[in-house]
Amino acid sequence: MNSISNLPRIRTALLLGLIAWLTGGCYLVESATGQLALMSKRRPITRVLDSPSTPAALRAQLGTVTSIRDFASRELGLPDNGSYRSYADVGRPFVVWNVVAAPEFSVDAKEWCYPIVGCVAYRGYFALGKARSFAAKLRNRVSM
After folding, report:
1. DSSP assignments along 56-115, one per residue
2. Along the 144 residues of the chain, how does pLDDT read in single tens digits?
3. How far apart are CA 116 and CA 101, in angstroms?
4. Phi, psi (5° rounding) for residue 44?
5. 114, 125 in Cβ contact below 8 A?
6. Which residue in 28, 36, 64, 78 could disulfide with 13, CB within 3.0 to 4.6 Å?
7. Helix (H, G, I), strand (E, B), or coil: what is residue 124?
8. Kindly report the CA angle at 95 between 71 and 137, in degrees rounded to 5?
């Protein structure tokens, strides 16, 4: 994929970023912006493996991913689609940080509900600081 074909994604990410800034950082807009930024960085694993600049350790890991993915389709009959066929270097140790919460002395996690995806027992953040800030707000609500 060349840089021209990335323009619609880049424009969309910029637009969502502007909306997030204007709305004071709405969680859904921040999540969508983070997801689009992640998607704009992805490259087919085959292209990463073909690049002479790919470090040996990454090359080995992606080779293992490719072998496992091929096995899953060939031997287990899983769909041979685009899943696990791309790689994105996000430049940080984790892609996302999840915040999970439960009331004191409970094992029932709090759920958050969203359009399209439904209800989930976590909130994911593409920035560690945002995850920590949200976790602190949850802790402060409980201690009040």
Report:
1. HHHHHHHHHHHHHHHHHHHHH----SSTT-EE---SSS-S-EEE----TT------EEET
2. 555 566 777 777 777 666 656 655 588 888 888 999 999 999 999 999 999 999 999 999 999 999 999 999 999 999 999 999 999 999 999 999 999 999 889 999 999 998 778 999 999 999 999 999 999 999 988 654
3. 22
4. -60, 135
5. no
6. 36
7. strand
8. 135
**Contact residues for 20 (Cβ-Cβ < 8 A; gap 6+):** 26, 29, 30, 33
By three-state DSSP, how is residue 11 classified?
A: helix
How many Cα atoms within 13 Å fall on the side-chain side of residue 116? 2
How far apart are the C-alpha atoms of 45 and 111, rounded to whole Å? 35
pTM, rounded to two decimals: 0.71
Coil, helix or strand for 127?
Answer: coil
Tracing tokens 């707000």 back to the chain, one arrives at: 137
